[in-house]
Amino acid sequence: MTNKTTPDRYALVGHPVEHSRSPLIHTVFARQTGQRLTYELIDAEPPAFETAVRGFGAAGGKGMNVTVPHKEAAFALCRQSSEAATAAGAVNTISITDGALTGHNTDGIGFIRDLTVNLRQSLAGARVVVLGAGGAARAVIDALARDGACDIAVVNRSADRAAAAAALGGDAGRVGSVDDVLAATLLVNATSVGMGTDELPLDAALLHDRLVVADLVYHPLETALLRAARTRGATAVDGLGMLVHQAARSFRLWTGVDPPTDVMRAAAMAELSTRGVA
Ligand code: NAP
């Protein structure tokens, strides 16, 4: 147990934030590791973002998670950023020391750890199609390339963003098309298509039984894409594992302590079920 009298303050800033699972996850991590902290939700629209972050730091806040739509603005705001945040051009975790902001991005490592540790999927030599080119896609592409994926085809609605994201994959990265799914071993949906809707980000006929399909969307947990993947014999991976692992990395950056992630997924699932969104 830590013996501080005042708990350290952390928060998630985004818009909207009311359905976030981050307070639950960090509260459970704190309980499991004996850390004393509070975790708040701060709803800020883009014009209010900088004031919200600086105000939280001035009030003694130690760190923040950043979510849609502020990850790129957070990168611009931080005085220093980690290699992963710089590659993605996006920050999802801020550490605050004496008012100075340091940006990190734990999305990519969270995705990789869910696949490789929990689900025992090897990424060495993987042929990957990434749908999307936003902050999450860029973090995942950078992490996939570092982990040895041999081909990363990026498919995105806006072609210019696809090219910029593909460049993060180094020699493995390229702009692709949905037809690349036919020869792929891993398909990652890093678009927001399917969030709160039953929409599919691509034609289900392209899915096959040699494919692992990972959907970053976690609301709902069982997306239309994951249902279609299972129907066609593919392995389906939901976004909750990544959410837990990226939070674990944020927690470690803030507290220096590695929280256990194995029981966390069950706790988050139970919470989601009670809210009727699992
Ligand atoms: P973002 O930066 O806003 O990027 C959104 C991406 O989705 C862009 O590539 C965008 O294409 C594409 N897109 C949006 N609407 C589309 C549509 N109707 N048709 C086709 N493409 C569309 O968002 P983000 O931060 O990368 O997040 C993306 C998703 O990942 C969200 O659902 C988020 O909740 C999820 N996420 C999950 C985790 C986790 O831990 N599981 C972590 C981070 C993010 P354009 O470039 O053409 O606009």
Topology (elements, then pairings):
Blueprint: E1 8-14, H1 22-33, E2 37-43, H2 49-58, E3 63-66, H3 71-77, E4 80-81, H4 83-88, E5 93-97, E6 100-104, H5 107-118, E7 127-131, H6 135-146, E8 151-155, H7 159-167, E9 173-175, E10 186-189, E11 212-215, H8 224-231, E12 235-237, H9 240-255, H10 262-275
Parallel strand pairs: 1-2, 1-3, 4-6, 7-8, 7-10, 8-9, 10-11, 11-12
Antiparallel strand pairs: 3-5, 5-6
Bound molecules: NADP nicotinamide-adenine-dinucleotide phosphate (NAP).
Descriptive overview:
48% of the residues are buried. The protein has 2 domains: 8-105 and 241-275, Rossmann fold (3-Layer(aba) Sandwich), CATH 3.40.50.10860; 108-238, Rossmann fold. The strands form 2 sheets. The chain has a 6-stranded mixed beta sheet, with helices on both faces. The chain has a 6-stranded parallel beta sheet with strand order 9-8-7-10-11-12, sandwiched between helices. The mean pLDDT is 93. By secondary structure, the chain is an alpha/beta fold. The radius of gyration is 18 Å and the shape is globular. Helix 7 (159-167) links the parallel strand 8 (151-155) and strand 9. The chain has 10 helices and 12 strands. The two termini are 33 Å apart. NADP nicotinamide-adenine-dinucleotide phosphate (NAP) binds next to helix 5, helix 6 and helix 9.
Structure characteristics:
278 residues, alpha/beta, Rossmann fold, 2 domains, six-stranded mixed β-sheet, six-stranded parallel β-sheet, 38% helix, binds NADP nicotinamide-adenine-dinucleotide phosphate
